[in-house]
Amino acid sequence: MALSRDFSLSLALLAAPAPAYAADVTLVGLIGTKAIVVINGGRPRTIAVGQKTPEGVVLTGTEKDAADFEIDGKKRTLRMGQAYSAPVGTGKQSVVLSSDSRGHFVVMGSINGGSVQFMVDTGATLIAMPASEARRLGLNYQQGQRIQMHTANGVAIAFRVKLDTVKIGDIVVNSVDAVVADDDAMGITLLGMSFLNRMEMKRDGPTMTLTKRY
pTM here? Predict the structure, then answer.
């Protein structure tokens, strides 16, 4: 599995669970008491405090790096780059991601209940993480199958493991194959195909919708 990519990322995007009929809202910028948002994958637009969009999203206040909204009648606080994601109306678990300035899809999620920053990588066969991240999560990765993998710094020793749960937004997947590399130069955990192949993936410009298939 080749990991020869530039993992220097300028923006970390978060995804939150969604209720039954809220809009998909991403906070992409702040200008004083105004917020720049992307709603339902559309073009960025600027809304002022008290303004209500046609989708029913109301900006109720702004902070230094966050904004308060009313979405689907409920108060939500989004930080810069954070997305509030709605299901697609099929009853399936779904999340909408927005790309950063480099075109990468970066999202906060969790592994076995521990918070993790992922980068979507369809070129990675498995979820791949550096050893430092595995240790932080308390994974006994060295008990896994010892293998070799190719990284940007050459061949590294790695361990194949099974993750109990991987969660992105309201999507939860159990028993997911992963690999832990002793080479910490990779820097970020890759959300590879051992997770993504259980999803329907729909790319629409700067947004990507993941919907759990099984």
Answer: 0.59
